[in-house]
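step=encode ok
step=design start
structure_in=
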């Protein structure tokens, strides 16, 4: 049994409250995140530091990768895109924490792009149906091959951190963020759970509890206004 949290976007106070709720109901559960830790909300530094300290396992989202690439590879497409995607509050959150910047960037860089665990497949935006003919791999046997393929296509608007396409039925539950929903949304026809419930716009931060490929529960926390004001 695992918990998976949707896009956080610098909403640290909301994140702390949600994690407390999860642990109260499911003590010692492993917690994962679909990424987008940074940008939009006020506390990107605090979110990344909390994710590290709580040993929450995450897959990077497009905002995390834009942040990393802007600092490390500023002329790259992913790096320059950060300037148009809500970077300002992330910069401000690191003003007094510059000594932690390198550690946080390494954490983002070293995190896996995809996770195939406990009967479910976790990524930031999911595998588009457009990739159907390009992924002739067994998810359980060839995960490294798949991850390398997806990394090479990381800037593609249909790729694993950007797509808003219809997602591919991969034969097991896909858990994704990126595409905002008012509520956690499960689509049976392709076995996909969308868990980004738009915390940074004032809605809520959500998580699901998954066991053996089935969604057992959903836990949410309304956005703390101090995260976004």
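sequence_out=
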């Amino acid at each position: 049994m695992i918990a998976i949290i949707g896009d956080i976007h610098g909403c640290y106070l909301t994140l702390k409250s949600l994690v407390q709720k999860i642990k109260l109901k499911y003590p010692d559960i492993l917690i994962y995140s679909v990424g987008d830790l940074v940008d939009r909300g006020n506390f990107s530094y605090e979110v990344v530091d909390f994710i590290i300290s709580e040993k929450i396992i995450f897959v990077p989202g497009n905002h995390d990768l834009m942040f990393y690439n802007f600092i490390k590879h500023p002329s790259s497409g992913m790096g320059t895109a950060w300037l148009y995607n809500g970077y300002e509050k992330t910069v401000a959150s690191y003003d007094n924490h510059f000594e932690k910047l390198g550690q946080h960037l390494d954490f983002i860089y070293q995190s896996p792009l995809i996770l195939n665990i406990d009967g479910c497949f976790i990524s930031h935006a999911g595998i588009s149906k457009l990739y159907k003919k390009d992924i002739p791999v067994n998810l359980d046997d060839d995960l490294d091959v798949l991850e390398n393929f997806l990394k090479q296509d990381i800037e593609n608007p249909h790729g694993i951190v950007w797509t808003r396409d219809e997602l591919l039925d991969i034969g097991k539950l896909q858990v994704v963020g990126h595409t905002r929903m008012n509520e956690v949304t499960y689509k049976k026809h392709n076995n996909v759970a969308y868990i980004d419930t738009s915390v940074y716009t004032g809605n809520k931060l959500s998580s699901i509890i998954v066991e053996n490929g089935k969604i057992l529960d959903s836990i949410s926390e309304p956005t703390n206004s101090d995260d976004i004001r």
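step=design ok
step=annotate ok -> The domain at 2-227 is CATH 3.60.21.10 (Purple Acid Phosphatase; chain A, domain 2).
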